[in-house]
Amino acid sequence: MKQQLRPAARIVLCAACAVLLLAETVVVKVQSTALRKEPKFYAQSVAALKAGDSLERLASQDGWLQVRTAAGAVGWIHGSAVGSKSFSLSAMDTSMKTQASADEVALAGKGFDKQVEEAYRAKNRDVSFVWVDKMVQIKIPAAELERFLKQGKLGEFGGGR
Fold this sequence. Notes:
It is a single chain. By secondary structure, the protein is an alpha+beta fold. It is built from 5 helices and 7 strands, in the order αβββββββαααα. The chain has a domain at 1-86: Roll (SH3 type barrels). A hairpin with a 4-residue loop joins β5 (64-69) and β6 (74-78). The longest helix has 16 residues, at 7-22. The protein is flat and about 75 Å long.
């Protein structure tokens, strides 16, 4: 004899399915960033994230996403640092690459990829990238960033959002 699900059980089952279907996975598209305790650039860091890390989107607020890492850490990341999880490319020739890394997608979104960089370097052999490489390594402490925003009356400290 078949057992029928009670109406309450059906509702719970449907709600659980809806949550699973609505759960969005995003991927970190910047080289490195911090998962923050609050939706603020200077908030305490909860975890370090790197390009390609998958995150479960939980909520959003003013351009920030509340996410959960694979390790279970929950915090906030700015929407500009993440993109959609899947990157499918089509190719008639099966020997062609049909997947793109998060780094490639982030650079391509800015019109910049490895081929563009190589072409630019080849055309501009007299240009030094030493300072660009050094700037990428600069890390500003959260307290210093907050102090800068307050002094300049920027963002939530007096400027627009």
